Amino acid sequence: MKLNIQEIMEIIPHRQPFLLIDAVEECEPGVSCVARKCVTMNEPFFGGHFPGQPVMPGVLILEALAQTGAVAALSLDAYKGKTAFFGGMDRVKFKRMVVPGDVLRLETKIIKMKGPVGVAEAVAYVGDQVAASAELTVIIK
Fold it and tell me: What total number of domains does the chain contain?
């Protein structure tokens, strides 16, 4: 299933300036999701990170990955209308800077779900290069 920004906002509660995915390219509810974030110079964080050398903060790349995973989890009927909160991050690696003009491809795959707690493998790409990867734990409330 593909989703535009309006459909994404029907699933997750994030709004500008903290909604960090622009479109969902594919989603299998409860299993996986692939989203896209077009990084522009207009992002509010570039004003201070860093002046003269804009770089997307790594924690915001992780947040974009978490939002992508949240779309997959919260698309399940059992979790509609709920919110996915961070429970933890493991094996976080940053491999490449993300700068204005980059398009992030955000891929998450839910590898474990026990009640309201889920774990996902998450990878952010720019082209075919890995920008960041992590194992993310979320708690759905």
Answer: 1
